[in-house]
Structures are given as C-alpha cells and as structure tokens.
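Morning F.,

Quick status update on the modeling queue. The single chain you submitted on Monday has been processed. Sequence for confirmation:
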Amino acid sequence: MNINSANPPLVMVHGWGGSHQETWQKSGVEQLLTESGRTVIGVDLLGHGTAAKPHDPAAYSDISEPIRTAIGARSSTVDAVGFSLGAIALLHAATVNPNYFRRLMLVGIGNGVLDEHDPSETQRIVGGIEGTSATDDVLARQFGNYAKKTSNDPSALKAVLLRPRSKPFEPKDLKTISARVSVVIGDRDFVLPADRLIESFENCELTILKNCDHFATPENFGFIDQLLEFFGAE
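Structure tokens below.
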C-alpha cells in the first residue's frame, strides 16, 4: 500500500486498561503503519502505560487533555484512531476543537456515548476489579482481568471509571466535527447498536466486524485492514 508521505501524523489512543505499547505496538499495528509511511503519535491516557497514575477520580475529569497536549498548537489537522475509552477521549477532543482532525476512526463505541451515564454499570465493572462481581458476570470479570495485567495499576483504573462524568455527547455538537469519520465495531460488541451515533456525524461510515467481540477488536484482521485502508486513501 502506498500511503502519501504528505499525510499528517496519525494519533493512536488505546482503550481502558491498555496502553500504546500493549494495544498498538505489541500487535504490530503501529509497525504496519510506519512501514506504510505514516508518522505515529502514541498517546498514553492518564492512569495508563507510561502516564502518571493518580488514584483520585477527580484527576481524570478532563479525559482528552493528554491527546490535546500531544497534538499541541499545530496549525494543521492530524488523523487519529482510538479504541473504546480512547475513542471517547478522541471524540471529546474533537468537540473541544472540531477542526483538530482530518480523519477520525472511532473503534468500539456506540449509541451509549449519547446517553446519560449509568453509575450502576460503573459499579458493575468496579466489582470485577475488586473481585466482588457475580461469578456469572463475564463482562465484569473480563474488565477485572484487564485491570490486573502486570503493567497496570488497578486503583488508578478504578479511579478512571469513577471519574466525574461530563454531559453526554450531543448530535448537534458532533455535526460540527469537520473530519471524515469511520466507526468500527465488532458484531458481538456490547456497545451496539450505533445507528444514532453514525447519524450524528456529517460524514461517517460504519464497519461491522464479523465474529468479533469488544476486547478482540484491536487485533482483528478486519479492523486492521479497515485501518490501513481508511488512513491510506488519498
């Protein structure tokens, strides 16, 4: 694939419990992009990877600050891809400045970002981290396992979940985003459906990955193909 060297840098943002290294480097995705001629800007969100890991939920109130810092005061747009929490953070950055991005790929988010946050869902995941969730609650247990990876700080990740939540994204604000948007979701992802989210953007396409759940998405071959195609097109 020939990716024009004139393309802007590509900002990559991991999901909750991940990091740039774990999500994009270990899987080889970053290498594929750099071999194609793209310059990658890797972002570790607060509480993850190489970033600071405060245990106070209030520290995480501005979820997109690390992204905006990484982009800096550029006079031109960048491209970006984010998975799950990273996609939410990118979307927040795009509402702060609708002209940040040329192309924006949002992976593993759906209509839920348009709805009021349900605190009971947060407590469910916190139970998975603390080992108090129901034994048959597979989703909570999966989140708990992610939090307990060797490189993670479970207390920091719990604080991320308990952060002060801003109001839901509103379609009128998403309409102002100038980027071409791609939303990618596995057909077994708990975030589905995504119809209202897709309709909220001025220029958006949806890709559904077959036989793919939420956690498997960043390493799914269909996702990687879509990533290279979306950011490789002229």
